[in-house]
Amino acid sequence: MHRISEDTLTMQYFRMINYQALWLLWLVPLLAGLFIWALYRRRKLRTRLADANTINYIMPQISGGKRFFKALLLILAAIAIVIALTEPGWNPQPEKVQRKGRDIIVLLDTSRSMLAEDIKPNRLERAKLAINDLLEVVRGDRVGLITFAGRSVIKCPLTQDYGFIRMMLKEINTETTGRGGTLIGDAIRKTIDDVFDDQDRDYKDIILITDGEDQESLPIEAAQKAAQIGVRVFVVGLGNADQGSRIPITDEQGRKTFLQYQRQEVWTKLDSKTLQDIALATPGGKYLPVATGTFDLAEFYQSAIASASQKELESLTAIKYSERFQIFLVLALTLVVAEVMINERKN
């Protein structure tokens, strides 16, 4: 099914879903070459056995035209099979598609503390892996991505183009926001003010992934504001809450040191208390104290988000094609059967 907008409905009378299969057509000249080589080898072996008159006497005479025609049938059958593999279709018909889903914003902490390696490979990379897992199971929802540290940046607005989100996710690092610090409250407020609207209550979710080391940005108050417009906040807490972890820094020569402040190594800890309060500030919000363990964001989505009520999203006009690969498979089979039935002997 090929999706298009209602305003720019364009009829395409033929399409191939798996057009990459056309690369298999290079087998056609190879197959033709094999037939030519086999014909050459057969004639050479016949001349070795005896002279032409003797060969014609002891062996049935073969029609060169029939042999060529049989080879042509097999080549055409191969072409028909390749076309069938492209999954061709035609006779397009416009069709209304009504979609349902929720709006989900992922808030990803990209401050330097997310480089801590108390969860492997580090907090930030583990969070990115979890988001990729989430995108594998999301169906129908609009998803957006915001990174935050000392400021918040909308990396991807609400969209159903999950491939684009994955592409943006690959580029994210601790330099993404360009300003140090961790302002969780500002990130939540930016989501409310710049991404979500005041309509469609009860269909919005925020997934906050952070270690919780906030710098007085009033995150709990921001979560309470989110609750007023029906937003649930799910919080994923990463990091060691007791001992904490140092923040590694790699210089241009690849040498690894640790972040220092006033000649003392900086240790970063998970602030579970703050993160739990943020989640509880929104009705239906939950806190996932991952700490240094493992977690499955895809599984959490299935249990907490996918099962929730969904709103009607904008409808699309889609073009539905009639699948016709069966015609080419039948044609290929018919050609092969015809090739077998043809006798190579001269009448």
Strand content: 25-35%
Strand order of the largest sheet: 6-5-4-7-8-15
> In DSSP terms, counting alpha (H) and pi (I) runs of 4 or more, how many helices?
10
The number of E-state strands comes to 16
Describe the global form: elongated
Q: What portion of residues is helical?
A: 25-40%
What does this structure look like?
- The protein starts with a strand and ends in a 6-residue tail after the last helix.
- The protein has helices at residues 27-49, 52-58, 64-85, 123-137, 162-170, 184-195, 219-228, 272-280, 297-304, 325-341; strands spanning 2-4, 14-16, 88-101, 103-109, 142-148, 152-159, 204-210, 231-238, 245-246, 248-250, 256-258, 260-261, 264-265, 267-268, 286-291, 311-323.
- The strands form five sheets. It has a six-stranded mixed beta sheet with strand order 6-5-4-7-8-15, with helices on both faces.
- The protein is 38% helix and 26% strand.
- Strand 12 (260-261) and strand 13 form a beta hairpin.
- The protein is α/β, with parallel strands linked by helices.
- Helix 3 (64-85) runs antiparallel to helix 10, helix 4 (123-137) packs across helix 9 and helix 7 (219-228) packs parallel to helix 8.
